User: Fold these one by one.
Assistant:
Number 1:
Amino acid sequence: SGTFGWKRYHELAEIEAWLDEILATFPSVTESFSIGQSYEGRNIRGIKISHGSNKPGIFIESNIHAREWITSASATWFINELLTSQTTEVRNLAENYDWYIVPVFNVDGFEYSHRQNRLWRKTRQPHATSSCIGVDGNRNFNSHWMENNGASSDPCSETFAGESPWSEPESKALSEYLTSIKDKFSVYLSFHSYGQWLLSPYGHSEVEYPENYDDLQEIGAAFAGAIKNLVYGTDYVYGSTASVLYVASGSSVDWVFNELDKKVGFTIEFRDKGNFGFVLPPAQILPNCDELMAGMVALIDKTNQLGYI
Ligand code: 0X9
Ligand code: ZN
């Protein structure tokens, strides 16, 4: 586990140094990759964990929203478990799938949330027509962009969709990277907080559902049930984004479904239900991670049973 104990939140430089340490410690099963550059010129990094070629791939995008620090804390913990755990369940996860994990996707916003404003959400690119800064990365993907009031055209809004789809270098780079590996992954997960939800597509409409929606709900039930069974007794609610939460148009998960033709993808909204919200106390990092692993084992197991991977 290197220098991390998951007892506090780490900033970007620490996470990158930790990633390098992990890559150096497990060179035969890990590979570094880059999604591309952020607006401020930072590298958006990822790690691939693979025990052989051409296993079904699982892609994890984390911290697209800057203030959701529990997401990168949990993603780094999950990487560490895949590489070090000796339990059969986790070994099977590690050995039977190829993992592509991006622990901090919105690197500029994440850095800003550590330096200037703990509650920053968006990217950091300025606009020609406003002094407000940034776009909601999860409204900037070119799938049903701006439809059904699922995003805002106001540059000062927290859900500003951008001047156009792909206005942000980060979302554009991710779409190009995902397209380049589209035959290598079957499951797409987007880590968020907070609310304790497992959200399936679609976000863009309350009346449209993927053709395999029943299967996605079955996977959701397995995920929520496994978490509920842990000592914490935490409740997760599952359902489509638009039906459970609100209409969200131009999200990454919807784009992956509609444009890359993927059949299994979820947004996971971690702890809590609003008591601490985005500023989840560090003492809850490890309990959240336990829940993530239990949920993930069940999710992958059910996805496998249903024949998707
Ligand atoms: O609004 C969002 O982008 C996400 N919620 S958050 O509070 N973390 O901002 C939910 C997005 C879910 N969207 C899709 N699955 N389409
Ligand atoms: Zn979010």
Number 2:
Amino acid sequence: MGERVEIFEVGPRDGLQNEKREIAVAEKVALVDCLSKAGFNRIEVASFVSPKWVPQMAGSADVLAGIKRADGVRYGALTPNMQGYEDALAAKADEIAVFASASEGFSKANINATIEESIDRFVPILEAARHIDLPVRGYVSCVTDCPFDGPTPPEKVAEVADRLFSVGCYEVSLGDTIGQGTPDTIAHMLLAVRERVPTTRLAGHFHDTNGRAIDNIDAALALGVRVFDSAVGGLGGCPYAPGAAGNVATEAVVAHLERLGYQTGLDLAVIEEAAQTARAMRSQ
Ligand code: HMG
Ligand code: MG
């Protein structure tokens, strides 16, 4: 039996947050309900951010209320501040995620805060979540390159990842937000991060702007990372990162991992069905 690699599905959040047309809650619910049958442990389905900043995520509470929750699946939501945390709690998210950047330019553009200010905002969220045993994931964006500041020093990524881990994030997902990473820059970044955060607590979150996400996953696998974020149908991007194309497609990652002999526990036929739904949502 091959070694296990977990895929964290982010399509309904990272994917749909960037679609230009308004997507009805019922369409989002249908996509999540399909994904719920694929065997994921975790699916990110919502984002309690300011609707002025990301109008596409405005119906997040309705999505969480509308989905059929499958046993054993945790449905996650982004929470940039206490207001987002309270909304996520009211909507019964099973886990939440705070998101920081390794570059100041993107931090300002994405959440209107410096890196330091953003972590100060996350501390009360993590404290509140700890009291009720709500798992909190942490994201670090721009782990190799920033659309505003250029290349990101690996030590800076390590520092921010360490901060998120130290304040209580159970896992830190490392985002190549604009898909400019190469196997080489990803490996350098990971070698620095591994000095500060156990590899078993890291995830790779690679956008596929330059078609290199699968090669970057291979580089991360070689350094021991065993959790990867992806979006069904290759949906996605980030509205505050010019040039951020879709996340790497879940169906491509699963097929690739299985070719390499890893076990994902996922049903590729169901994922293909969800990918078709996702692609149809995208092309309308
Ligand atoms: P701000 O303008 O500095 O904050 O935004 P504010 O406190 O002045 O609030 C502005 C307005 O938003 C106020 O409303 C607040 O009430 C409201 P007004 O008084 O003007 O009517 N507001 C909220 N409404 C709903 N939910 C909330 C909330 N907070 C404030 N939680 C803020 C700061 C953080 C809110 C804003 O910058 C924001 O929402 N940013 C989110 C941007 C975003 O979602 N980006 C995409 C996700 S990150 C990503 O995709 C990267 C990732 O995939 C990893 C990778 O690829 O690298 C994770
Ligand atoms: Mg992303």
